[in-house]
Structure formats: structure tokens, C-alpha cells
Amino acid sequence: MLGCLDTMKAEETIAIDLAGKTSIADTMIIASGRSQRHVGSIADHITQEMKARSFGAARVEGLPACDWVLIDAGDILVHIFRPEVRGFYNLEKMWGADRPTALLAG
Q: Hey, CA dihedral for 85, 13, 71, 97, is it positive or negative?
């Protein structure tokens, strides 16, 4: 998924390893898009990529507004934000502050 986000020019992409820390997912990916249109485009591309890679039917929330889109593919959660919304919710701090395995990806 990280390569797909890079292809779509997602910004400030990070992956947080959640394996063994929570039952909601093994990996959380957080990225930003420059505008609502960019966030929606990234989300569409990610869901198409997940289908192509046989991840199954991912649940997608937030597409009408495209301020924050959540793609839940079971073991992988992908959050795509507009920068202002990402700063407000600050999921990196909540999930990655004490987790040394949080990685900055490109």
C-alpha cells in the first residue's frame, strides 16, 4: 500500500505497526492529500489496489466529504486526511508516540 500512496503523491505517509498491541489491525497507515479531491482520488486508488491484490472488500468511510477517509481492510487500516484535519486528530501521537516501530515512509 505504501507504494500505491507514493504513486498517488500522498504526503507525510507513515506506517505504524500495531501487531500484538491491539486487535483492531496489524498495521495502520496514515497519509495526507492536498485537497478533498486529492484525498478522494487517493482513497479510490487504494481501494482499487486492494481489490486487485485480493484483500477482499474493504470498508470505506468518509468518501462524501473527503476530509478524512478511513479504509478498513481487516489487518490494515488506511487513514487519508486533509492536512488540517490530520493535525486536529493527530492519530500519530495517539497510536505511535510510545511505539518505536512507527516508521516514516517517504
A: negative
CATH code for the domain defined by 2-104: 3.30.460.10
46 backbone dihedrals φ, ψ, rounded to 5°: -65, -45
**Interatomic CA distance for residues 48 and 33, integer angstroms:** 17
Whether 27 and 15 have beta carbons less than 8 Å apart is answered as: yes
Distance of CA 85 to the CA centre of its chain: 13
Average confidence (pLDDT) per 10 residues, the chain, 106 residues = 89 89 87 96 93 85 95 92 94 66 49
CB 47 within 8 A of CB 58: yes
Phi (first) and psi of residue 97, to 5 degrees: -60, -45
